[in-house]
Design brief:
46% of the residues lie in helices and 6% in strands. The chain is built from 20 helices and five strands.
């Protein structure tokens, strides 16, 4: 039987899933024949086009989504180019009378949506955007202070969210979808996302992009680490976190699906503390997006304008190279940077440590770290990346106090006391005994004997650089 429903494009950006997809569901509820579309549009991303690690992930994620859609009778139309021109061309090719898309908070994409809305309206085609990545609309009146202004501090933001924490169930996936109309679907190769050399091979020992991989990882978290999340999330030598960030960023799973899975499990009183700690981290993600929506300058400028006068050190290319490639001579930092290089991800506690060393001890501008993470993280998200780097650098909203300068040695001794994380990612240090693993430069004889190729001293004196950073911060007061 011929499907006589009018066509609507379902433009998926960071909502690469079928389950709990309000964009797809809105098109179906509107009585339309949905045509799922992904447009690779790096030229529309402003100064933040997708980094290399995330493009490698996206290549596999789109393949997984296309397979899922084909299993339901549809498929995924793949195009590349400037999004407005591509969408307008697809409207003409398909005869679509509406376009449904997922709303994004990044300034460049918001500006694109406004231009596209106006262009489509002139042709009598309506554009409808749905929030598919967050639990709350970042501009919602219900997520503002009592004075009606955006939040700048997390704790009252979290209290506000907690009072209206979602309890509704995720949207079910459709049982079938209509076939695509006769138009060129494109291929993944056309998007040129996959690396031309296999530098990403190690990633896929740790990750399975796509919805199935996301739900498998969520199940493992619920059945394993979730109940002790508050106690173990800071320990990098074990799987104590959910590792859901790359799946959440591209929308392979929704935060509402995560909350529903947690709600369906049985927890004792002790475990409930772990679950609440995890939900608080989901709220931090909401906070980052809330901030970027209301303060778009934070993607590249200090949130706190006082820091325009801060005495950052001159760019130091050799030092930055040592930091990027895990050759600082500080084992916990080098282990984190090696983990990042090997699998496109880094444990959050270690992210704080390497960020503190870069922005406080080396006093390099936080953007130097944000740019490197943007290119190397599979979970690179502009809101999270900008907010997190400004937090650790002291320049952001609700930022770490200026005097909070993590000592990487004491952090290493506290959170990786047996050196298991360091030994995993720094095999050249594996033979170092006892506490020497945390600060090998303090025991030069052992370092020369067991790890002669490792730097004999760190790239910076930790005590002296700490005092210099404190002096620079005090100058702003």
């Amino acid at each position: 039987m011929t499907d006589t429903r009018p066509v609507a494009l379902v433009w998926l950006r960071n909502a690469l899933r079928v389950d709990d997809n309000p964009v797809l569901q809105a098109a179906l509820d509107g009585g339309f024949r949905p045509v799922p579309v992904y447009v690779h549009a790096p030229g529309d991303a402003g100064r933040w086009p997708m980094g290399a690690a995330q493009r490698a992930w996206l290549h596999r994620s789109l393949a997984a989504l296309d397979a899922r859609l084909r299993g339901l009778g549809s498929g995924l139309v793949l195009r590349s180019g400037r999004a407005q021109a591509v969408i307008e061309r697809l409207v003409a090719e398909s005869g679509a009378v509406a376009v449904y898309g997922d709303r994004r908070v990044e300034p460049a994409w918001r500006a694109l949506d406004q231009r596209l809305d106006a262009a489509l309206a002139r042709s009598g085609v309506r554009l409808e955007m749905r929030q598919a990545a967050l639990l709350f609309e970042p501009d919602a009146e219900s997520v503002r202070t009592g004075q009606g202004t955006p939040y700048r501090v997390f704790t009252p933001f979290w209290k506000t969210l907690r009072r209206q924490w979602p309890q509704d169930r995720p949207l079910p996936a459709p049982t079938s979808l209509p076939p695509l109309p006769a138009l060129a679907t494109g291929t993944l190769a056309d998007l040129d996302l996959a690396p031309r050399t296999a530098w990403d091979t190690g990633f896929w020992e740790h990750w399975e992009p796509g919805g199935a991989g996301a739900h498998e990882l969520l199940d493992a978290f619920v059945e394993g680490a979730a109940g002790a999340y508050d106690a173990q999330r800071d320990l990098p030598d074990r799987i104590g976190t959910s590792r859901m960030s790359p799946h959440l960023h591209l929308g392979e799973i929704s935060p509402r699906q995560i909350l529903a899975r947690l709600a369906d499990a049985r927890w004792n009183a002790r475990q409930k503390a772990g679950i609440e700690a995890y939900e608080r981290e989901l709220a931090w993600r909401e906070f980052s997006h809330h901030l970027l929506w209301h303060f778009p300058h934070m993607q590249e400028e200090d949130f706190n304008p006082r820091f325009a006068r801060f005495a950052w050190a001159e760019p130091a290319p050799q030092v930055l190279e040592a930091w990027r490639h895990g050759r600082t001579g500080i084992p916990i930092v080098d282990a984190g940077m090696r983990e990042l290089w090997a699998c496109g991800w880094m444990h959050n506690r270690v992210r704080l440590i390497v960020g503190s060393v870069l922005t406080k001890n080396l006093r390099q501008h936080w953007l130097a770290g944000a740019r490197w993470f943007w290119d190397t993280l599979v979970d690179a998200d502009l809101a999270n990346n900008s907010q997190n780097w400004q937090w650790i650098g002291g320049t952001g909203a609700d930022a770490a106090p200026y005097f909070r300068i993590f000592n990487p040695v004491t952090q290493s001794e506290r959170f990786d006391p047996h050196g298991r994380y360091i030994r995993q990612w720094m095999p050249e240090l594996a033979a170092l005994p006892g506490k020497a693993i945390h600060a090998p430069w303090t025991q030069p004889a052992l370092l020369a004997r067991y790890a002669p190729a490792y730097p004999k001293t760190p790239v910076v004196d930790l005590a002296e650089s700490r005092e210099a950073a404190l002096d620079a911060f005090r100058a702003l007061r």
